[in-house]
Amino acid sequence: MIPLGLYLHIPFCSAICNYCNFNRGLFDQPLKTQYVGALIEEIRRANRGGTSASAAAPADTIYFGGGTPSLLEPDEVASIIEVCRTTFG
Question: What is the number of structural domains in the chain?
Fold first, then answer.
């Protein structure tokens, strides 16, 4: 089975660059906290039921894109990686 590569979009920036066309917005702490919680829940749900082709596929890569993923706190990154590990092996 071919392993998955996961792309996790973190759409927050400390400044908006004119040349950037990625989906992003200015950093907002409460919104970031909500977003991280929603992202974790979405990852958990990705492997429920086991009916899709990706349900049994392991992941060997996690790419954090954005935005500016470095705006996440280390414990937020750790929580996201842990749920990816639990969900996708």
Answer: 1
- Domain span at residue 43 reads 4-88
Q: Which of 27, 15, 26 is nearest to 72 (CA)?
A: 27
Residue 23 in contact with residue 10, Cβ under 8 Å? no
Q: Say how far apart CA 44 and CA 53 lie, in whole Å.
A: 16
Q: In terms of C-beta density within 10 A (0-12 exposed, 13-18 middle, 19 or more buried), how is residue 27 classed?
A: middle
For residues 47 and 4, is the Cβ–Cβ distance under 8 A?
A: no
pTM for the complete prediction?
A: 0.84
Which pLDDT tens digit goes with each residue over 52-64? 555 558 899 999 9
* Alpha-carbon span 62 to 51, nearest angstrom: 22
